[in-house]
Amino acid sequence: MGLPPRARGRVGGRRPKLTADQAELAQQLYDAREKTVRQIADMFNVPRSTVYGHLDKTKTVPRQPKRTAAAKS
């Protein structure tokens, strides 16, 4: 039968959908609030969940909803 894949020097798991450069760009765009997660996902042709998975949770600040004129009263 042979050796298992790891014994032959192979690592398991899927390859990431975003490259390291793409993940870095996504983080920059998100942090600068230039693009929404939806827009970033559309740029890279991936689902929003993939973008969320690549964002650094230690640096990412949750966005606050925009205030409307009715909410300021």
UniProtKB/TrEMBL annotation:
UniProt protein name: Helix-turn-helix domain-containing protein
Gene3D superfamilies per the UniProt record, alphabetical: Homeodomain-like (1.10.10.60)
Species annotation: Streptomyces caledonius
TM region positions: none
Region listing for Disordered, in residue ranges: 1-20
Comp. bias intervals (Basic residues): 7-17
Domain Resolvase HTH: 13-52
Matches recorded under InterPro entries: Homeodomain-like_sf (IPR009057), Resolvase_HTH_dom (IPR006120)
